[in-house]
Amino acid sequence: MKIDQDITIRDLERFIGRSEFEMTLVKATDFSPTVLATLTHLMLGELRKHKSVVIKLEVDVTEIREVLGNHYEYFHLMSLALFHNNVHFHDKNDRPIPLEKLQYGFKKGRQIQEFAYSQDKGRKLPPNSPITPADLKNYMAHLDREKGNSNHGVSFGLACFDHLIKEKLNETVYLNPNGASKSWEDISLWVSRFFDFNDLLINDNLSSSHSIDDISTLIYELYDNTNEWGKTSFDDEIIYSPNYRSCIVNAFLRDQLEEGFSAYEESINGYLKDLTNTDLGTLGFPNLQANLFDADELGVLEISVSDTGPGMARRILGKDYDDIDETEEIDAVINCFQKYLTSDKSGARQVRGRGLSKVVQLIGKTGLVRVRSGNVSLVRNFLNHPLSRTELKEGIEFDERHYLNKVEGTCISILYPFKYKIK
Question: Which residues of 13-49 are buried (b: 16+ CB within 10 A; e: fewer)?
Fold first, then answer.
């Protein structure tokens, strides 16, 4: 079985435990909702477990140049290449592809992307920057080309490699220089640029729209959880190295939603179908989003945050998987969504542990959340099963609860409908 554009999440689960993979060349934007995040999460987990992983890409020399010339379009390959040197890429003739060449290109591409989205349009490069004006011009030209297909969707992924400090790959626009998460207000500046650079307008006052605030809060709460839970072993005795944390933001727009997708779980398939068939006037958007109905089109925003940390159950229970049974692990992951549950031993329970509870409150009328951690997979469709007040007090219920093969770390994906128009 090859990993290609039509790979399903169910298919990806079958790759757990393997150390060799075949993969066609697929751009990050061509994967279906939550598939890119799942692929990256599962494969990095296999990289952590195995001494060596081989990835055979169905590419020739010309296509390798395509990857190196457009490195920002291959987030999954970038994540694999930079995570650890024990990954080996081969071409379709089984000839080794120099990892150093891929790493150089991906590092530079990551720098270009992050600079572009961390600055206002027209900002000049600082002195002694590793990025040249030509690099930045080429990337902005790439964004302009993509705008011609704006209704087909846009994607942006940011990866943090905690162990690559010398290379400064442990820094992202979501983190302050001291490693702490930036506030949701700071993140909202980046989110505004994400929509602005791609000529997408959520409402007439984009920078202060309530939807931008909600999206920024979702990113902050999910990413801050990786800062607290995803960098050390469950007993805090080992700092993980290598270690990876990422946030992928995908905006699936009109044309994609109308065409449909082939590579998602049935639960996600059903959610997207129900959403696109719903009378928009009856949709109850979270918080103060009623003003979005003045826009033209319905889109779905995916926010997927993943890490290669200890996993939710191990962290919250303070013990290894060998000492956790199936029921205990499922319950532990579900309990992580309770408002004041935290692994903090300081007793400050009233000021920590709110992150995942805040997330489900924000998407609790129209969104969907999928969780994959350890052996556990959970799904909740809030469009068909809105969040109740009782759940806020007594705990969140999930529509689907599965016990699967064990994966390293955690991946949480959110689907969040929004209204937009193209400038």
Answer: bebbeeeebebebbbbbbbbbbbbbbbbbbbbbbbbe
Q: Contact, 105 vs 67, CB < 8 A? A: yes
Of 341, 347, 349, nearest to 313 by C-alpha is: 341
Q: Maximum CA pair distance of the chain?
A: 58
At 203, which amino acid appears?
Answer: N
CA distances for 192 relative to 203, 209, 355, 414, angstroms: 11, 9, 22, 19
- Beta-bridge partners for 304: 248, 413
Q: Report how far residue 106's alpha carbon sits from residue 101's, in angstroms, rounded to the nearest whole number.
A: 9
Query: What tens digit of pLDDT does each residue of 87-136 get?
Result: 999 999 999 999 998 998 898 888 888 787 776 656 678 788 888 888 88
Q: Let me know if 51 is exposed, middle or buried by CB neighbors in 10 A (0-12, 13-18, 19+).
A: exposed
The SS3 assignment for 303 reads strand
Structure tokens at 150: 């704006």
Distance CA 190, CA 176 (A): 14
| Cα–Cα dist 124/388, whole Å | 49
Residue with tokens 């002694």: 128
8 Å CB contact between 236 and 345: no
CA distance 25 to 77: 9
**Residue 49: alpha-carbon gap to chain centroid:** 21
| DSSP symbol at 299 | E
Q: How many CB atoms neighbour CB 348 within 10 A?
A: 10
Helix (H) or strand (E) holding 151: none
What is the C-alpha to C-alpha distance for residues 411 and 246, in angstroms, rounded to an integer? 9
E strand or H helix at 265:
none
> In this structure, what token pair is assigned to residue 3?
């990993």
How far, CA to CA in Å, does 254 sit from each of 62, 154, 297, 420? 33, 12, 7, 10
Contact of 176 with 399, CB cutoff 8 Å: no
Global pTM? 0.90
Q: Do residues 354 and 338 make contact, with C-beta atoms less than 8 angstroms apart?
A: no
232-273 per-position pLDDT tens digit = 999 999 999 999 999 999 888 888 887 777 656 788 888 988
Query: Taking a C-beta distance cutoff of 8 angstroms, is the pair 159, 244 a contact?
Result: yes
H or E segment to which residue 21 belongs: strand 20-23
Say whether pLDDT at 206 is over 50: no
